[in-house]
Design a protein that fits this description.
By secondary structure, the protein is α/β, with parallel strands linked by helices. It has six helices and 17 strands. The two termini are 34 Å apart. It binds 1,2,3,4,5,6-hexahydroxy-cyclohexane.
C-alpha cells in the first residue's frame, strides 16, 4: 500500500522540568512512522538547510522517502510539558508553505500540518490524488506567527468529503461550516480521557486503555494514521479499538517495537459504545 504524508518535519525542543531535549518531530513524522510498519511511505515537506541530515537519514533507513521543498528556515517548536498530557507550544521558526502537489496517486494521503503550511487549494488538489484523503485539524487552526501558539477559527468547508478527520476535542469549536456528517469519520480525541468518534454523523464514545505516560508528543498523529490504515481494511469499531491500542503501546514505549498480537490483545480492553 502506498501512503503519502504531507506536513512539516519539525525540530522539537521538548522541555520537561529543567531538562530540554531537541529531536525530530512533526505530525507527518509520527504519522509516517506509524504507517511505515505496514506500508510504503513518502513524506512531502519543507525544511531548511539547517535541518539535521542525520534526522532525514534516519527516516530513509526505515525505508521512508522524503521530498523536501527547500526553505530558508526549518519549523521549530518548543513543547513545554507540565505533566504527561499537558503542554504549551511555542513556534520558534517556520519553513516555506507546501503548495506543491505530487503527480502520483496514493492509497492513503494524510495531511498533517502543524503551522498552517497546507493551504486549502493544496487540500483540493490532493482530493484528486487519492480516494482516501485524511487530515488532522491541528495545523489548519494555528496562527502561523512566531511565539506562543494561538488558535484561530477557520471556514473548514474545504475539508468536506474527506474520509477521516482528527481533532483534539478542544479544537472542534474552531471549525466553522463543518459538521460531523460532512466527513466519513470524525475522531475527536481527548488525551487519555474518553473520546468521541462519528461515523457519517453518528456518535460513538470510546474509552482508551489507560497508561501513565511521561509525554504525549505524537499521540494524535499516531492515532490518526493507525486508524486510517486499519479502517481501510476492517470495520469502524474494530479500527477504532485497534488504533487506540496502537497509540497506547506507542505512548508507553515511545517506539513502534510491538506486534499486531499485542495491539489486538490491548484492543480488547478498549470500550466503544453508541451514545
Ligand atoms: C510535534 C507533534 C505534534 C504537534 C507539534 C509537533 O512533533 O507532531 O502533534 O502538535 O506541533 O511539534
Amino acid at each position: 500500500m502506498k501512503c503519502l504524508l504531507v506536513g512539516y518535519l519539525t525540530a522539537d525542543i521538548i522541555a520537561k522540568g529543567s531538562t530540554n531535549e531537541r529531536r525530530i518531530g512533526g505530525g507527518a513524522y509520527y504519522s509516517a512512522l506509524a504507517l511505515a510498519k505496514f506500508c510504503e511511505v513518502e513524506i512531502l515537506t519543507s525544511v531548511g538547510r539547517d535541518f539535521p541530515g542525520e534526522w532525514l537519514d534516519g527516516l530513509r533507513e526505515r525505508g521512508i522517502k522524503v521530498k523536501a521543498i527547500p526553505s530558508e528556515k526549518s519549523t521549530t517548536y518548543e513543547l513545554r510539558y507540565s505533566d504527561g498530557n499537558t503542554r504549551t507550544l511555542r513556534l520558534l521558526g517556520r519553513a516555506e508553505p507546501i503548495t506543491e502537489v505530487s503527480p502520483n496517486r496514493y492509497d492513503i494521503v494524510v495531511l498533517n500540518p502543524v503551522a498552517n503550511e497546507i493551504p486549502p487549494e493544496t487540500v483540493e488538489a490532493f482530493k484528486e490524488r487519492t480516494d482516501f484523503l485524511v487530515a488532522d485539524v491541528q495545523g489548519f487552526i494555528r496562527a502561523p506567527q512566531i511565539g506562543e501558539v494561538k488558535l484561530i477559527s477557520i471556514d473548514a468547508s474545504f475539508l468536506k468529503g474527506i474520509k477521516v478527520l482528527h481533532a483534539d476535542i478542544s479544537e472542534i469549536p474552531y471549525l466553522k461550516s463543518l459538521q460531523p456528517k460532512d466527513v466519513e469519520v470524525l475522531l475527536a480525541s481527548n488525551g487519555p480521557e474518553p473520546g468521541r468518534a462519528y461515523l457519517r454523523g453518528k456518535e460513538y464514545i470510546y474509552r482508551p486503555a489507560k497508561f501513565d505516560v511521561e509525554e504525549s508528543t505524537g499521540a494524535g498523529d499516531v492515532f490518526l494514521a493507525s486508524f486510517s490504515y486499519f479502517y481501510k481494511s476492517c470495520p469502524f469499531i474494530q479500527a477504532l479499538k485497534r488504533a487506540n491500542a496502537f497509540t497506547g503501546l506507542f505512548l508507553e514505549r515511545r517506539s513502534f517495537d510491538f506486534s499486531m498480537e499485542e495491539v489486538d490483545e490491548l484492543a480488547r480492553r478498549v470500550k466503544v459504545e453508541k451514545s
